[in-house]
Design a protein that fits this description.
Length: 368
């Protein structure tokens, strides 16, 4: 592989990036991948345990990237003070920028980088760690390992002739004719990049990957500097259950906060858990997760409460001290249970978890 390109994999503390690290190490031991994590100083204990378990399992040291914080020993608190007590929110996410993205970008400098990201095969989203042009994301758990931007270059209407030439080397005559028909159909309203991609991948995932790889040789992307790329032959699609299986079978284990805990409300039983990694006070968590934090880890909940002062709150519509009113807790639990029941009536139960997960917001740097 080209030595001028660095291969990096960020461990967010979430299940998907942890499983990806195990997966990559097992499938591609020959790859020189740097593992790193950005510590906000406010992660859950289970996250630090997961990172420790991964280091033991992988036999590597996971580089800890800290934000620049002068002499302050806590990255989050340093910036929180600097910004005058202003709490981050989904509209003003200074925490991700200062505590995750900037440390990562300082770490990689200007070297071309391929960053491996654990977006799963059952998710419909993109996930970038950085938007710098010398950083390229690859998604090994998906059928389509490439990012949207890369597919845009490969399938561009003005790249048709190049694709036709490249495909000739990879397909039998019969299949080549089908590929040629697809390639010659221009992208337009009613025929999207995604449709074209699916049609071509339907003729062969490996073949598409090899063609894409060759087609990108003339680009400025980091992949253009790589001589060989073993992921071109990767046809696996990994979904949620696979992630839990990898974590369990490897011995690394699933962080305890993902385990569902039963609760009683109005004579019925619901289940709650925390659905993501990240800071214990993360503003992305749902109301039921705040209740989970209060009941399952009250010390952390009260620490989160201490940040709510001078008019700043973690949620727009409610202060944490209001949320822990017993009647309000019952209400949140009942609403969540009703939502779960409605979801399971509308969809097959084995999809329930995916439906609720689909509501998750967040970013690749914190939660994958
Ligand atoms: S986990 Fe949440 S609070 Fe922490 S850095 Fe990420 S977005 Fe910000």
């Amino acid at each position: 592989m080209g030595s001028s390109v660095r291969h990096v994999l960020g461990i967010s503390g979430g299940k998907d990036s942890a499983a990806l690290a195990i997966y990559m190490k097992e499938l591609y031991p020959q790859m020189d991948i740097e593992f790193y994590t950005c510590d906000t100083g406010k992660e859950l204990d289970e996250t630090y345990q997961l990172i420790h378990n991964l280091e033991s399992k992988l036999g590597v040291s996971i580089k800890k990237l800290d934000a620049k914080t002068a002499d302050h020993d806590n990255p989050f608190d340093f910036y929180h003070q600097l910004f005058g007590g202003y709490l981050p929110s989904s509209n003003a996410r200074w925490c991700t920028q200062k505590l995750k993205i900037e440390p990562f970008e300082n770490y990689i400098g200007t070297t071309p980088v391929i960053s491996y990201v654990g977006i799963r095969g059952d998710e419909d989203r993109e996930g970038y760690i950085s938007t710098k042009p010398h950083v390229q994301s690859i998604f090994p758990f998906r059928e389509n390992i490439w990012s949207e931007e890369v597919i845009g270059k490969v399938l561009a209407n003005d790249n048709q002739q190049h694709l036709l030439t490249l495909y000739k080397d990879f397909l039998t005559e019969n299949i080549y004719q089908r590929a040629a028909d697809i390639i010659k159909t221009p992208l337009r309203m009613g025929y999207t990049q995604n449709q074209k991609l699916k049609a071509l991948m339907g003729l062969g995932i490996k073949e598409f990957n090899h063609v894409a790889f060759q087609s990108l040789k003339s680009s400025q992307l980091p992949i253009a500097l790589v001589d060989e790329f073993p992921l071109l032959d990767n046809e696996s699609i990994l979904i949620r259950d696979d992630i839990f299986r990898i974590l369990r079978e490897s011995g690394v284990g699933v962080p305890a906060y993902y385990e569902e805990i039963p609760y009683e409300v109005n004579g019925k039983t619901g289940h709650y858990n925390r659905s993501r990694s990240g800071c214990f006070f993360c503003f992305f968590q749902r109301k039921i997760e705040w209740v989970w934090l209060y009941e399952q880890n009250p010390a952390k909940f009260f620490l989160a409460m201490e940040y709510e002062k001078d008019g700043y709150t973690w949620m727009q519509d409610e202060r944490l001290e209001e949320l822990i009113n017993p009647e309000r807790i019952q209400q949140i639990k009942q609403e969540f249970l009703t939502k779960q029941q409605n979801a399971s009536q509308n969809f097959r139960s084995n999809k329930l978890i995916d439906i609720l997960d689909a509501e998750e917001e967040g970013c690749a740097a914190c939660f994958i």
